[in-house]
Structures are given as C-alpha cells and as structure tokens.
Amino acid sequence: SDTYKDRRFQYILTNQHLFIDKLERDLHEIDDEFKKLGSDVKDQTVRHLKARISNLEGDDCKEHEAPCGGDVPQCISDLFFCDGHKDCKNGRDEDKEVCSEVPADIGSSFAGVVSWQACEEATPHHAVVTITANERKEFFKPRIWVRAILAFEEEEHEHHIKTFQLRGYYSFGDRTLALGPERGTKPVYGVRCHFDRGDDDHADCQIVNPASLFVCGNFAAERH
C-alpha cells in the first residue's frame, strides 16, 4: 500500500540521515585526534615526500624525454617543456612551477658534502656550485645557458680551495643542471645536479669526468 511504501521510505531516509550524522561525528573525532598530533605538515615536506614517491616509482620515458605527471602517464621530449606551447595533455609542461628559472638564477649557490668515490684522494668535504651568468634565448626557451664555478677544499685543515670554471645549461624538462669545463680551461671536472626533491632549493649532484661522465663524487646540494 502507499502508506507502507511511505513508512518504508521514511525509515530508509531516517537511517541514511543517522548514518551520515555518524560519519560526520567520526570525521570530527578523527580531525580532533589529528590536530592533537602536532602542527600542520609543511608544504615543503609534502612536496619532498611526493618527489621521493615519484622517484621510487620511476617512469617509462625514453632518453631525452620527461614525464608530464598526473594520473595518466605521458612522456614528451624534454625540449617541449617551457617553450610556450602546451604539449602535455594536462598542460604541465608549461606550469609555472615546472618552468621556474630559480635553479639557474645568477648568484645561486648549491653546497653539500662530497663523498668521493674516485678522482680525488680526499675525505668528504664541502663543495659549492655557484651560478655566475645565465641567458635564456628567445628562440630556444627549454634551456637556460649558464656559467658557473665549482669550488671545493683540497685540504680541509689547510683550507686550500680548488676552483673550476664551468659552462652548460639548465633543462626544465628533466630539472637538471648540466655543466662541463669552460672553453679554454683544462677539462678536469663537470657537474650534474638533478632537482628531484620537489623544489628549487635541493638537488642530488654528481662531480663527473667530463669526457667519460664517470662519477667521481656525489653530494646532496642545498641552496645557500
């Protein structure tokens, strides 16, 4: 009968309301418990965690390609990033964070403690890469051309500093600073820094032999 149907409908509706009310109470309780755990998580911490997860997952991109990110995997040439045209389906290749020029800013210094594997008979000591000049050409926007100086202590106690003039580029697509010897200088070292930690201030760097790209040392670099 219609009366039965009405009562049944009201019964179901009431139970749904009760269930929703309970869910809301549970959510408030969870929120209260979460707030008791401490202060809000910093955005930088979240970005670092997301970057670590992304690094562990890896991608299926080929050499000279970079991932677009997002839920649907897509790779495009690293030369298509930040060129003024959206090539990723999600448009991420022109995102302002992806196209940040901060890693190549003049005066930027990235420092860390080098762990030497070869090339130098030295205990771990500080190394600094400092950007001294840059240029982003209008006709080739996916790269910023840079000049830099690599400096590190040869003898920590005597504070003898070795310096090397470098030149190269910063690639937006794979977020890599690639530096080789300046023209006219002895080709001793090159540097590769990969900004894979979710921001423009931290990078994993390698000091390499410029001819073979053999890795001489590694350091986790931080902007200073």
Keywords:
calcium; elongated; 10 strands; Linker L1; Low-density Lipoprotein Receptor; eight-stranded antiparallel beta barrel; alpha+beta; Eryth_link_C; 224 residues; disulfide bond; Lipocalin; single chain; LDLR_class-A_CS
Please provide a written account of the structure.
With 224 residues, the protein is of the alpha+beta class. The chain folds into three domains: 35 residues; 41 residues, Low-density Lipoprotein Receptor, CATH 4.10.400.10; 122 residues, Beta Barrel (Lipocalin), CATH 2.40.128.620. It is 22% helix and 34% strand. The strands form two sheets. The chain has an eight-stranded antiparallel beta barrel. Strands 1-2 form a two-stranded antiparallel sheet. Strand 9 and strand 10 form a beta hairpin. The chain is elongated. The termini are far apart. The model has no long low-confidence stretch (mean pLDDT 85).
- Taken together, the total number of domains comes to 3
User: Tally the helices: what do you get?
Assistant: 2
Strand line-up in the sheet with most strands: 3-4-5-6-7-8-9-10
**Helicity, as a percent range:** 10-25%
The CATH class of the largest domain, by name, is: Mainly Beta
The shape, in one word, is: elongated
**Which range does the strand content fall in?**
25-35%
Please identify, by name, the CATH architecture of the largest domain. Answer: Beta Barrel
The largest sheet is: 8 strands, antiparallel, barrel
Q: How many individual β-strands?
A: 10
Q: What would the CATH topology of the largest domain be?
A: Lipocalin
Instruction: Catalogue the unreliable spans.
Output: none
* Secondary-structure element series: HHEEEEEEEEEE
Q: Structural class of the secondary elements?
A: alpha+beta
